[in-house]
Amino acid sequence: MNPTATLLPRTLPWAGALALLLGAAGPVGAQTTPPTQPPAGTLAASQVATGPWTLQRAIDYALEHNLTVRQNQLTAENGSAVLRQSKAALLPTANLNGSQTWNYGQSVNPLTFEFQNQTTRSNNFSGATQVTLFQGFQLRNTIKRNTLDYQASLGDIQKSRNDLSLNIASQFLQLVLSEELIRSNQARLNSTQQQVERTQKLLKAGSVAESNLLDSQAQLASDELSVITAQNQRDIARLQLMQLMNLDEASQGGFQIQVPELADPDEQAPLSEDPAATYQTALTLLPEIKTAELRVRSAEATVDVARGAYLPRLVFGGSVFTGYSSARTVTSVGSDSTARKTTFFVEQPGGGPVIPLNVLLYQRNTTVLSQRYWDQLDQNLGRQLQFSLNIPILNGLQVRTNVQRSLIGVQQARLNAEQVRLTLRQNIQQAYADALAAQRQFGASRRQVEALTTAYRNAEIRFNNGLLNGTEFNIAKNNLATAESTMIQNKYQFIFRRKVLDFYQGRPLAL
To answer: What stretch of H or E contains 197?
Structure first.
C-alpha cells in the first residue's frame, strides 16, 4: 500500500488530485466540504511577487486575489443591501405625481366631470404618503431573517478564506515534497552514474562480465526517468499552487518557494490530542458551524413571516391633489353697462284696461374668460386621509402552503447543520487516525531504510568484486529507493495531518 494515499483527509475535495500527484493507489473516499481555519488576522497588503515565497506570504496573496473569496464578499454586500431595504420598509412611503393631458372631441372634464366636445389641456398633481401600522409582524420578522442571512454570508466569507488557506498549505507541502523527491532521485542518479563508470573500468580490466555493465546502464536509464517524473510532478505542483494563488503571468516565470526546515515525525512528541476535545474546540471556532446555526434561525424567522399573513393588515394613508383644465372658465363683470328697454303691462285696479309701461334698464357688461392656471390649482386643492384594513379570509390556501413550506425549510436547515457537525467530527477523527498512522509508518519506514541501506552497501561491495550480478544489485538498489521515497512521503503525510489537527484547534497554519 502506498502511504501517500492518506496525506489529505478523504473528505477534502482536493484530496484526489494531490493523492495522484503523490502516487497514491486507489480511489479517494467520499468528498465533502474541507475543514476550515479559525478566523485569521488582518490580510497583508498587496505585495510584489519577487523572491522566494513563504507559506504565509502565499496565503496572504491568495486571500487578496482569489476570485471565490471576492464572489463571497459580493454576496455578503448584496445581503447587506437586502437588510437595509427590509429596515427601510418600516418607514412611510411618499410620492409625488404629475400629468399633462390633451383631450380631443367628446371627453369628460377631469375637474367638473361634465361631458364636453372640445380640445382641452389638463394637468393633475398629487402627493400621497402611506405607512403600514400593522402587518402581522411580517416586517420586523423579515428584518430578523435578513439580519441572520447577512451574518451567515459573513461566515461564508471566512469559510472560503479558511478553505483557501488550507488548500494553499496542502499544495505548498506538495511542492516541498516534490523538491525533496527530486533531490533524492538525483542523488541516486549520480550514484548510478558513478557505478556505470566503475563498471566500465572493471569490464576493461576483465573483472566483471559485460552483462553487469548492461544492467548498470539499464538502471541508469530508470533513474533518469525517475528524476524526470519527479521534476514533472514538481512543475505540476508549482502550477497548481500558482493557480490557487491567482498569480499574475508576470510573476509566474521566477516563482520559487522558500523550503522550510521540517522536523521528522519521530523527532516530534507523539500525538496527544483527544479527537473529542478537538471536536468541541472546533465547534466554537469554525465559521461553518456558526453559519449553519444562523441559517436554522433564519428558517425559523421565515416561518414567522409566513404566519404573519394570517393576521389583518392596517394601513394609514394621506394624499393631496389638485388640477387644471383649459376648459374651465370664469365670468368677468365689466365697469361699463348697456341700456335695455323693457315693457311691463300693468293691470288697472277695478278691472280696467291693461296699461303698457316702458322701462329703461341698465345691465353691466360681462366677459367669459379661461380661469387662470394658479387660481385653478389653488381652488381645486383637495385633501384625503384614509385607514385601510385588510382581513384575509380565503386566498387559495396560499398562506397555509407558504407556512408548510417554511416549516420544511426549518427541518432542512436543521439537517444541514447536523450534517456539518457530523462531517466535522468525522474529519477530525480521520485526521487524528491518519496522523497517528503516518507517524508510525514513518518510524517503520526509517528502520526499513536503515536495514536496506546496509544491504545495499553489502550488495555494492559484492557487485564491484564480481560476486553479485547486475540484476540482483539493481533489485537491492531499487528496494532502497522505494523505501526512501516511502519514508519521505510518510513524513509529509504526518506533517499535513498534524497541521490539520492544529487547524481544528485554532492554531495558525505555519511551517
So the answer is: helix 138-205
Matching residue, cell 519527479: 230
Say yes or no: 79 and 178 in one domain: yes
In a domain, 511, yes or no: no
75 CB burial (10 A radius; 0-12, 13-18, 19+): middle
**Residues comprising the chain, all counted:** 511
Asked whether residue 363 falls in the same domain as residue 443, the answer is no
Cell of 252: 509566474
- Candidates 9, 61, 3, 4; CA nearest to 503 is 9
Within 10 angstroms of residue 29's Cβ, the number of other Cβ atoms is: 14
How much is the pTM? 0.73
pLDDT in tens, 437-471: 888 888 888 888 889 888 888 888 887 777 777 78
Among candidates 503, 424, 426, 510, which has minimal Cα distance to 38?
503
Do 353 and 457 sit in the same domain of this protein?
no
- Expressed in angstroms, the distance from the first to the final Cα of the chain is 28
**With contact defined as beta carbons under 8 Å apart, do 494 and 445 qualify?**
no
How far apart CA 257 and CA 247 sit, in angstroms, is 13
Pick the closest to residue 390 from 399, 379, 381 (CA basis).
399
Q: What is the pLDDT of residues 141-157, one digit of tens each?
A: 999 999 999 999 999 99
Encode 367-392: b = buried (16+ Cβ within 10 Å), e = exposed.
eeeebeeeebeeebeeeeeeeeeeee
Q: Which helix (H) or strand (E) holds 204?
A: helix 138-205
